[in-house]
Amino acid sequence: MLPEGYFEVAAGQIAAVVTYLEMRQPPPELPEPSLAFPIERLTGPDLERYRRVFRAVGEDWLWFSRLRLSDDELAAIIGHPQIDVFLLRADNRDQGILELDRRAFPDIEITFLGVTANLVGQGAGHALMVHAQRQAWSHNPTRLFLHTCTLDHPKALAFYQRAGFVPYRRRIEVAPDPRLAGLLPETAAPTIPLLGKAC
């Protein structure tokens, strides 16, 4: 455990406060699926399609965990029979991603859930959340859980709480800045300063 105080984060690193949230029973009523945003299961696994939508959704928030994986590593995850990947379609393009991980059943994790910036506030995120809950609770898990962090959209935590998730844990994550590693362009996540770049 960290003592109270401030701690130096090395140049070239990013730090985030991560909040874990859980839901131990399904909501009393789940809304009907949205017809405005079709959601389809990713099959294959189609690595190129997965990486494209992962980057489109996550670039503004420095999502990088899947980008640093080799083809074999990524295929082993998203091709696993207990990993379900769904893509939200809008304007004939993939503009949202949902990933459910059932490998630690009876717990199910929402590993990723997000939409592209142009769809924020349009109901697309809500459509993905409804789909996530319907899919997850159809397996009768003990709990459904996820995490968000201070690098995510500023309304993400409130969004999850409105959906019925309750915070239960907090951690600090420190990692190499993916922009300096070349996983994302230096222009990604303009609200997060890029520190440690050689002049």
Give your account of this protein's structure.
With about 200 residues, the protein is α+β, with helices and mostly antiparallel strands. The protein has one domain (about 30-175): 3-Layer(aba) Sandwich (Aminopeptidase). It has helices spanning about 45-60, 70-80, 125-135, 155-160, and strands at about 15-25, 40, 85-90, 95-100, 105-115, 145-150, 165-175. Strands 2-3-4-5-6-1-7 form a 7-stranded mixed sheet, with helices on both faces. The longest helix has 14 residues, at about 125-135. It is globular, with a radius of gyration of 17 Å. The model has no long low-confidence stretch (mean pLDDT about 95).
Descriptors:
single chain, 199 residues, Aminopeptidase, 7-stranded mixed sheet, 4 helices
Tell me briefly what this model is.
The termini are far apart. This protein is of the alpha+beta class and 199 residues long. Helices cover 21% and strands 29% of the residues.
